[in-house]
Structure formats: C-alpha cells, structure tokens
Amino acid sequence: MKNLFAAVVALLLPFVASAQFSVSGKITTQSGNVLPGATISITKTAQSAVADANGEYTLSNLAAGSYTVKTSYIGFVTVSKNVVLTSNLMLNFELATESVQTEEVIVTATRAGKNSPTAFTNLSKKDIEKNNFGQDLPYLLNQTPSVVVTSDAGAGVGYTGIRIRGSDPTRINVTINGIPYNDSESQGSFFVDIPDIASSVNNIQVQRGVGTSTNGAGAFGGSINIQTATRRDSAYAELNNSSGSFNTVKNTVSLGTGLLGGHFIFDGRLSRIHSDGYINRASSNLKSYFLSGGYYGKNTTIKANVFTGYERTYQAWNGVPDYEILNNRRYNEYTYENQVDDYTQNHYQLLIDHRLTDKLSFSGALHYTKGRGYYEEFKEDAAVEDYGLAPVIYGNDTIYTTDLVRRRWLDNDFYGVTYALKYLPTNNLNLNLGGAYNQYEGNHFGQIIYSKESIGINPEHEYYREHAKKNDFNIFARGELTLNNIVLYADMQYRHIYYSFLGFDRNLNNIQQDATLNFFNPKAGITYKLDDRQNIYASFAVGNREPNRNDYTNSSPQSRPKHETLYDFEAGYRAGGGRLSGGINAFYMLYNNQLIVTGQLNDVGAAIRRNVKDSYRAGIEIDGNLKLTDRLSWAVTASISTNKIKNYGQFFYNYDDDSLVELQLKKTTIAFSPSFIGSSTIAFSPIKGGEIALLSKYVSSQFLDNTMNTNPAGFSTDPSLAGNAYAVNRLISGYFVNDLRVRYNFTTRAIKNIGLGLQVNNLFNEKYEASGATYPSLSGGNIYNYNYFFVQATRNFMASLSLSF
C-alpha cells in the first residue's frame, strides 16, 4: 500500500521525482544499423530495458551515483560502460559483430527493410505493451495508417475485425514467425482463437498493398507479420492484470529463465480474459498459454514454440437491426442460452536458424496447427427436409417443421515447412530465397443435438459431412542491390495451389471435386537515398489470389468465379530518426476480376460473389511523429482515398415474382471503403516513467454495399418500417472517437517494475457503428433494406496493474 500511495503521489506531483534521473540512447551496429530488441541493463540493480524498433531505450527513475551500463544482443559483442549520473544522460552504444548465430532469419526474409520500396509500419514490444489492456490484436494496430477496426461485442474483446485500405481480413496476409495464420479455406484471420497473443509478441510489421513476398494467402490489402518473443538474457517473472467495464478481466502470468549455461532459454505465459461485452449477452471467455524453449549456439539457434487458445463466445455475429438502434443500442437478437462459438486451436512450431558461413544463413520451420470446435444455434420452426429428413407421420399429424438445436463443427489440421536462405556476398547486395509447403485438411460436419418434436433421429444426429484438402506451395527470391545512393529491388514468387472440396458438378450433383491454380507474382522497385535519414521510392507489384471455400462449394463449374489479380503501384518519401520522422505514400491498386457480393444468385440458387472486371483503390497515406519537446510528442496518420468499381451491376431479389432485378451503375464506390481515415496520438510525460496520451481516430462515412444508397439519413424507431428505403439507408456514418491512456512505471528494491495503467475508451461517449451488413430486396415496387450494424461501446474503461521481478 505504501508503494501504491507513493506511485499516485509521484504521478500527480512531479516534483516528488525531481531527484531522479534517466539514461537513454540508441543501440546500433558499427555500420550504423539499429538493433531493435537489444538488452540494456544496469548492474547491481534490477533495472533493464529492451531497445525499440528504432534501437532506442530509456532507463528511468535512477538516483544520482555511479553505475555500469551493459548492452547485449545475440550475434554481437557485449559492451559495458561506467558512468557517473548527476543529470539525465544520453548514452549510445555501437556493437561489433560476434561469431554467434543471429536468429529469426525466416522472419526478416518476409519483411520490408528501411530501404524497401514498400509502405510499412513497425511496432515494437514497447508500442504494443502501452495499449495492451486486453483488447484483441486488431485494436492494438488501430493507430497505424489506413486501418479500421470493429468488434462484434462492441468493446474489442471476442470476435474483432480489421480492414487495411478498405480490404477485409480475408485479403490481409498474416504470419506468425513466418508461418501462415490465415485460415486456408475462408482465408480470414480469427485472432479470437489466439487470445492475448500480444503479450507474447516482440514486434509486428504492418505492410500495406501487395508488399514483399510472404507465405500463405495473397496480400490484397496488406500484411501483418508477427514475431513472437525473442531472447531475454535475464530471468524474469511478470504479473499483468486488467479490469474494467462490462465485467472485463484480463490476467496474465509470464515467466522466463534467462540464459542458462550460456545456451538455453525457457519462457512461458498463461492468460485468461473474460468480458460480458457491450452488446447484450455477447460474452467472451478466453484462455491461452504460450511456451517457448530455445538453444543458442555459436552458429545455430533452435526454438520450439507451443501455444494454445480456447474461446467460447456468445454470438453477436449479425449485428443490431437498424430499427432497434435508437431504442436499444445493445440489442442482441439471440436469446438461446447456448448460442455460442466454442473452439480450441493448438500451435506447434520448431524454428531452426543456422549460419552456414559469414555470408550465408539458413532458417527453417516445421509447424502444425490443430483446430477443433463448433458453433451452436437454435433454429425456430426449421423444415426437416433442410436436414435431409423426411416428414414424420404420427397418426393424423405430419411433422414438417420443428424447433431444433444444431451444432456445426470444424475439425482441421494444418501443417508444413517454411524456409529461407539469406546471402550477403557484399555489403551492397542482399539476396533472399524462401518459400513454404503447407497442407490443410478440414472436416466440416453438422449435428442436431435437440428437436422439440420427435423426428426419428438419434442424439447428435449428423446431417452433413464434408472433407476438404488444400496443398499450398510457394517459392520466392528477393534481392536488393545498392549502387551508391540507389537501391534496386526485385522480388519474384511462384505459388501453386491444389484444393479438393465437396461441391456441385455440371449436373448439380454434390460430389468431391478439385481445382488447381498457379500464380506468378513479380515485384520491382527503386529507392533513392537522399541521406542516411531520408529516401524516396517507387515500386510495382502483382498479386494473385484464389477464390475462397464458399466460392467453390456454392457454385458449379459453369458459375464458378475466376481468381483475382491486383496490380499495385506505390511511391513515397520517408524520413527516420531525429525529432521529426514519418513519410508520405501514394498508391494505386488496380484490380482485375475482384470478387464482390452483388446480390446475384448462381445456378444452384446460392448468393455468390461475382468477378467485377475493373475496380481500383487510389490514395495518399501520411504518417509522422513529431517530438515537440523531450516530454511531448505527437504522432499522426491520414489516409485519403477513392475506391471505385466501373460498370457495376447490383441485383435485388423481387419477392413479387421470385426474379432478380439488376441496377446498373457506371461507376460506384466500393463498400466499406471510407475516403478518409485519420489518427492522432498526443503523448505527454509529466515525469519520468509517467505518460498521459490522447488517442484520436476519425473514419469518414462508408457504404454497406456498392450502390452508394443514402436515402435519406437516419434510423427508424418503428419496427413496422424495418427495411423501408424511406426510413433507413445503406450508409455507415462517419465517427470521431477519442481514448485517454495513462501509464506510470516505477521501481522498488524488491520489484523491478510496477506499472499502473488506465485507459478510458470513447472518452466523449460517441455513439457510432463501425461496420455492418445489408440485404436489400424488392416488394410491391419498393426497395427494402434489411440493415444490421455493429454498434460500438460508449464510454468505458480499463485499469491495469503490472509487476515485473
């Protein structure tokens, strides 16, 4: 209690800490390259720090006196410096290369470097920790350029979504340590299946556009490249607890042995997150663990990672109907007690890095992911014929429909190998050869676990079963050649896909069939280095992407869509270091055969995505970080874009005669593509170890479909007018949301770090919706819009306490 009281006093009365000093600086190689992840410690104290993405560190709250400051990084000689501290000290280190194997070659092989002609943002462990109060990973990326996030439950815990440049999660490539994370069939990334993964992450790179060649699904809007925790030489124990609105609680325990015997390290994390959600009954119960063991030799590093996530979430997938929003923003149409999604995902990774020579390094990974779970739902008055059953006759009564409860299962296995070779023949040439072979097997099946009427089935009656198999092979080569101030970049990838699935044949019989696709994805660019801090660049890249599971299973060969192709042009300027850093990037993303939901039905009667021949996204992205003073900084991003489809046809189902009516538009805006996205973070440090930050986010209006319908704005409160075009529209209004974050860290003799945090989300109580869905139709000559919106939480808070030993 004394320490807690002292912390509060120190945060409110800065002069209490006036006798405390700090040591800060930058860790680089002798050639000037920064070393993010380097460890800095002060001997005879419990203090240590890890250099951020810019190689910078800070050790705070030090009393005046003599100290020895030591920095180390695997592959480099450890350096110690003796200092006498009488004021704040700037202390930089240059580390010389040591004959020890460096790690994570396979991660860097799929990443953009500082001279790459690619738009990207790096987030360090420190950046991630600042916002890690328990919300899902997409929310920790919310302040990066061109990003829009949403939450089904409204508060960022449970099912969440992320869009980059308007592209949905199925078009965003995600890797963890270079290993693909996107689901092989749906191509989406479900971060709810790996809850609190952020607590085991060392850094993240977010690329926009096609980006560099990577493993897994094609990047049509961006890539999220995640690297989990790296080497920590000192033993540690950490407790992180958060609690706040909607009965949200997060508990995390992390342990590490540090370097044992000069070669071995073991780390572990155990997490639990619970939230009732902002939306009624949209609860989340999440559990996870992360275990890692590593061997660090002179030329070889071997790491084994095992991590598991379990989620049980009450469904809020459909959003809130438009006519309910003004009456009850927290409305959930589901009331059945077990309307839940229940899924477990286990990940196993074996990572090997080996330095073959001083100029050649190899990295490989074996991986296996096991997933199994179901979603359960109540179906009222369901037709028994829809479940492959004949109507049941009892005397004079015939049962055609009944209330029932069903479970739809997914039992899948994903395994394979990834590899990378990095060759540095000279200081001016950097070559990478990498690739992967991955195999997916998924069993989809459904069960009826309860029926109100007796329909002649056994318990857990199975009414369908489908098996899918997908092989994914790719190989890529990338090179960077430096000629004075010019860097030439080339990247080529070949990808082969084989997919076997249960789908309709030419005669509309549902049989097992297959599809094979081959893609060539070239990329090229040039960078001109104005000086050590600044460069300008331009690039062109081609990306190809296969249709998803539903595109195949809900069509016949005659109606099956083609694959999509993206031609991505990027050009920009960026500057790093100093008091002002950031850049400006212009992009033009031209799509050929982009797949879009149009309301059209195919030859098997299913709603389909349709290839749209010509569409594009064009815009400008700006990001900057201004250090106004040593205590005040301002980070800002802005994205201005136009997102269009040419010659688009939207189809409306006409209930009067069961026909489809087409609306032709010469040029229209792509759905879920706001023309402006902006963010701002103003951070002020009143004392060392303390920070107050205002995080702002503005997203302009966006459409639920591709028709640009805005007749007229507003929601109806009359359920009898639900869907009427004169009561609602197909538009998501723009919103401006502000969060307040307060952090304070201090040390005691017994505890290395005590961290206090408070985050007030939606500080000014904005009522807004971040996403939604629409199902327009025709009846009686009128257009009816059945709109659903994902309503986000009003003002709410999270408080945290962390202890490091």
**What percentage of amino acids are in beta strands?**
over 45%
Q: What would you call the structural class?
A: mainly beta
Major β-sheet profile: 22 strands, antiparallel, barrel
Shape: globular
What is the first-to-last residue Cα distance?
18 Å
So, CATH architecture of the largest domain? Beta Barrel
- The portion of residues assigned to helices is under 10%
Give me the number of helical elements. Answer: 5
Number of domains: 3
**Mind telling me the CATH class of the largest domain?**
Mainly Beta
User: Considering the protein shown, what is the CATH homologous superfamily of the largest domain?
Assistant: TonB-dependent receptor, beta-barrel domain
Radius of gyration, whole Å: 27 Å
Poorly predicted parts? 1-18, 99-103, 712-728
Tally of strands: 45
Q: Within the CATH hierarchy, at the fold level, what is the topology of the largest domain?
A: Maltoporin, Chain A
- The average pLDDT value, as a whole number, equals 89
Q: What can you tell me about this protein's structure?
A:
With 805 residues, the protein is mainly beta. It has three domains: 2-95, Immunoglobulin-like; 105-228, Ferric Hydroxamate Uptake Protein, Chain A, domain 1 (Beta Complex); 236-804, Maltoporin, Chain A (Beta Barrel). Helices cover 4% and strands 59% of the residues. The chain has five helices and 45 strands. It has a 22-stranded antiparallel β-barrel. Strands 9-14-15-12-13 form a five-stranded mixed beta sheet. The chain is globular, with a radius of gyration of 27 Å.
